[in-house]
């Protein structure tokens, strides 16, 4: 699931306002060594935090349908996880880095939701819309200053990008076949060892017709003359 979110972000960050610019998109940890090896303008999206969004947790099960819209399996609801990315721009001039960050904002701000058709693999197969937020209020326990300190680098302008993605729950289990016939009623004698004397298969429509006929007969008898 995480690698599929990376794939979506790479397409988003490399397109939009940055389409055709030749800017690289990377997911490496922006350490001093990585920065020293960089030799072209780069937008880096470093995944620094993964945690479950417990407010989205659901109970029960979900149906899985086939191409005929028939329920063939059931599964538990997916668990949702907040993937937090530290988005930075790397060039030789601070002004150019600011331009790249502005282009990233222009690309991501209109994209508050990612539709299932935009999501690859198992992520798109779930058929769920994935929310995306950028430069919002940071809700993770670690501050950006602590992250930069852990990376061993100097604090840089950055955007906090959060993608809340569903993770499929396992296992799936087969659903029972749909009911196509009514119940079968078998009539036996008082002697249980005797063979079956009658067997009738009652279908819902037949049962309803029989009940209506009996009700009509009762009404007709009740409307007759008193003797």
Polypeptide structure, described:
The protein has about 230 residues and is an alpha+beta fold. The protein folds into 2 domains: about 1-175, no CATH class; about 185-220. The protein is about 30% helix and about 25% strand. It contains 6 helices and 11 strands. The chain has helices at about 1-15, 30-35, 95-110, 120-125, 145-150, 205-220, and strands at about 25, 40-50, 60-65, 70-75, 80-90, 115, 130-135, 160-165, 175, 185, 200. The strands form 3 sheets. A 6-stranded mixed beta sheet has the order 1-2-5-8-7-6. Strands 3-4-9 form a 3-stranded antiparallel beta sheet, with no helix packed on it. The protein has a two-stranded antiparallel ribbon with strand order 10-11. Helix 2 links the parallel strand 1 (about 25) and strand 2 (about 40-50). The protein is elongated, with a radius of gyration of 32 Å.
Strand order of the largest sheet: 1-2-5-8-7-6
Give the C-alpha Rg. 32 Å
Distance between the termini: 82 Å
What value does the average pLDDT take? 79
Please write the string of helix (H) and strand (E) elements: HEHEEEEHEHEHEEEEH
Spans of at least 5 consecutive residues whose pLDDT stays below 50 are none
Question: Roughly what fraction of the amino acids lie in strands?
Answer: 25-35%
Question: What level of helicity do the residues show?
Answer: 25-40%
**Shape summary:** elongated
Oligomerization state of this entry?
single chain
In total, how many domains does the architecture comprise?
A: 2
Please tally the helical runs, counting DSSP H or I stretches of 4 or more residues. Answer: 6
Structural class: alpha+beta
Largest sheet: 6 strands, mixed
- Count the E strands: 11
Protein name: Pvc16 N-terminal domain-containing protein
Organism: Streptomyces brasiliensis
Pfam families: Pvc16_N (PF14065)
